[in-house]
Design goal:
By secondary structure, this protein is mainly β. It has one domain (8-62). Helices cover 0% and strands 33% of the residues. It has no helices and 4 strands. The strands form 2 sheets. It has a two-stranded antiparallel ribbon. It is extended.
Length: 66
């Protein structure tokens, strides 16, 4: 699960010899912190970091793609 503070995401997908597919993703910085909220409460895009803008879905998006 991506957290409000997640900035980077990388994923890979692989198929074994049969019909099974496997997917793995790495998020940075990490999350899954006990007793912490996954998302921040507040007005959408009110806390976008420097170098980000508010996109059409009201999410902060980086000005550059990596």
């Amino acid at each position: 699960m991506a957290w409000a503070t997640t900035k980077y995401l990388g994923c890979a997908v692989s198929q074994n010899c049969g019909d099974m597919w496997y997917a793995a993703c790495h998020y940075s910085p990490g999350g899954n912190i006990v007793n912490r909220r996954v998302y921040e409460i507040g007005k959408p895009c009110s806390n976008c970091p420097v170098g980000f803008f508010c996109d059409s879905t009201l999410l902060c998006e980086a000005n550059t793609r990596f």
